[in-house]
Amino acid sequence: MAFGKLTLIVGPMYSGKTTELLNFAEIYEIGRKNILLFKPRIDERYSKEHIVTHKLFKVVATPVASGEEILKHYQDFGKRVDAVFVDEVHFFEPSICKVLKEITQRGTDVYCAGLDMNYLWQPFETTALLLALADEVIKKKAVCELCGEYKATLSFKKESNGNIFDVGGKEKYIAVCKDCYNKVCNH
User: Fold this and answer.
1) Tens of pLDDT along 113-127?
2) Per the domain annotation, does 154 fall within a domain?
3) Of 88, 93, 102, 171, which is the active-site residue?
4) Predicted structure pTM score
């Protein structure tokens, strides 16, 4: 049996990571493949049971708190699973990496989308570990909300409360390029 492949979609907020993830899921659905979609239970910004893009396109997904829950759903599915999709992967503990690797070893493709860096311009541990394991990495960028250029690679938190894991949208975060990040941090 062939191994599945691990594809990781990363970038700042508003770069289209979730849209890209759902585009891949649609390709599998069109091909009549069995897929499972997961999202972190803590992300209830738009919906508890859907993966939702910032443009409000949504797809039903199973909310989970851990990689172990993903593995249980995967094992209990009852049929071959062709692909597993995980949104907002940076919100999960690093132990999810072992689970996702195991799923690929069983011949299932895995697609993950998430932030690669937090608002302090530091890597999220889980995402960094998945970057090392990934067969393919898609690095997205966004339009910088300050200068308007399509070169934003960072998420900037408008008001820091010290929480690295702080679910939010436009009310809390903007996408910025490195030059503008430096300007707003040193004003």
Assistant:
1) 999 999 889 999 999
2) no
3) 88
4) 0.91
